[in-house]
Inverse folding.
């Protein structure tokens, strides 16, 4: 068995799609009670993203706005780099990346895109 075993890749594609489909079903029932959060966006632009979270929760003020810029730290230092976000591109063969993107396209709302041409 290789690191890129077809069965393992297919298993994870199905799992990813099941998460997405569960999200879709939940939003049909709990439309205003679900907030989709992107870890990448939160890490890159914490002030704006936390403002959206606080607004969703009904608060008018975001406590992050009053913190010094260097007070926010995540596990990767002060910023998330493209190298970190797209590390999979150096590990997974392009053929597998394309397979994953194609077969999970219905869940595109979960994808992180830094630029419009992020797709391979």
């Amino acid at each position: 068995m290789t690191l890129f075993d077809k069965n393992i890749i297919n298993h994870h594609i199905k799992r990813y799609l099941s998460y997405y489909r569960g999200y879709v079903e939940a939003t049909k029932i709990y439309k205003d009670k679900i907030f989709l959060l992107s870890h990448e966006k939160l890490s890159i632009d914490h002030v704006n993203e936390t403002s959206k979270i606080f607004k969703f929760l009904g608060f008018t003020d975001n406590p992050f706005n009053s913190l010094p810029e260097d007070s926010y730290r995540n596990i990767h230092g002060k910023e998330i780099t493209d190298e970190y976000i797209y590390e999979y591109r150096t590990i997974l063969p392009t053929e597998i990346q394309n397979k994953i993107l194609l077969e999970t396209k219905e869940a595109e709302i979960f994808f992180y895109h830094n630029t419009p041409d992020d797709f391979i």
